[in-house]
UniProtKB/TrEMBL annotation:
Molecular-function GO terms, alphabetical: ATP binding
InterPro entries per UniProt: AAA+_ATPase (IPR003593), ABC_transporter-like_ATP-bd (IPR003439), ABC_transporter-like_CS (IPR017871), ABC_Transporter_VariousFunc (IPR051782), P-loop_NTPase (IPR027417)
Highest taxon in the source lineage: Bacteria
Organism, scientific name: Modicisalibacter tunisiensis
Name listed for the protein in its UniProt record: ATP-binding cassette domain-containing protein
Pfam families the UniProt entry points to: ABC_tran
Length: 229
């Protein structure tokens, strides 16, 4: 469970990008973080990932009963940038790094890597250098690498930006499969797509605040700037 309280952040002398009085997330759903370019989606995801420290407010992880939980460790929570960093090696080599990190060896490692390459449609690219992949393939490899770490929470920054329809469909299928494993996902996207249509909830950054909506019920609960909820 994620609990955000009186959170705000900004840069330099500029006013805060947004203020979020209160946000509670069960850490189970698939959330679409929506907002115009420059509204602060990446900034919020980076704060949730613990990569930056907020100017004001708190981000806490709790157990279901509200008791404090330790912040998720690397591997439990992963943040993927829209141009994901890939290791300077082959496609399979990128997955071998994770296999070593996980302590997998020999045939066990090889079969896990082969099945992940197949699942992500990258089997034919196994020996190709990762940095020569197309945009959609790079994102698929980044998701494959993340998947091998079995994250509990995945924060995806514009995973379908600049991709064509087929690539968006491929990434959508992968993200939905990852979610089936029980991984909670927040993904940012400034436009609606086949992927965002499959989300359970929407967090909408606009006019300096965050509106939370339940996509299934079609409800949006405005949380006005500065107000407690
Ligand atoms: N490290 C930084 N230093 C100064 N300004 C920054 C920094 N990071 C982000 N900003 C500014 O904060 C604002 C929000 O940026 P952010 O990347 O969070 O928006 P975004 O909603 O993710 O945008 P996009 O949809 O274009 O990716 C922008 O005006 C950006 O220039």
């Amino acid at each position: 469970m994620l609990e955000v309280s009186r959170l705000s952040h900004g840069f330099g002398r500029r006013p805060p990008l947004w203020e979020i009085p209160h946000l509670r997330w069960d850490g189970r759903s698939l959330v679409h973080l929506r907002g115009d370019n420059g509204s602060g989606k990446t900034t919020l995801l980076r704060l949730l990932a613990g990569l930056d420290t907020p100017r004001r407010g708190t981000i806490r992880w709790t157990l279901d009963d509200g008791a404090p939980a330790a912040p998720p460790r690397f591997g439990d929570l992963l943040y993927l940038h829209q141009q994901p960093y890939l290791f300077d090696t082959s496609v399979a080599g990128n997955l071998r790094h994770v296999a070593r990190w996980q302590g997998w060896r020999g045939d066990d490692a090889r079969s896990r890597i082969a099945s992940m390459l197949a699942r992500c449609g990258l089997a034919d690219h196994a020996r190709q250098h990762a940095r020569s992949l197309s945009g959609g393939e790079r994102m698929r490899l980044a998701l494959a690498r993340a998947w091998l770490l079995s994250p509990r929470v995945l924060l995806l920054d514009e995973p379908t930006a600049s991709l064509d329809r087929q690539a968006i469909d491929d990434i959508t299928a992968l993200i939905l499969s990852l979610r089936e494993t029980g991984c909670a996902i927040v993904l940012s996207a400034h436009q609606q797509s086949v992927l965002t249509e499959r989300c359970d909830a929407e967090w909408h950054l606009e006019r300096g605040g965050l509106q939370v909506g339940d996509m299934q019920a079609g409800i949006a609960e405005p949380r006005p700037l500065g107000a407690d909820s």
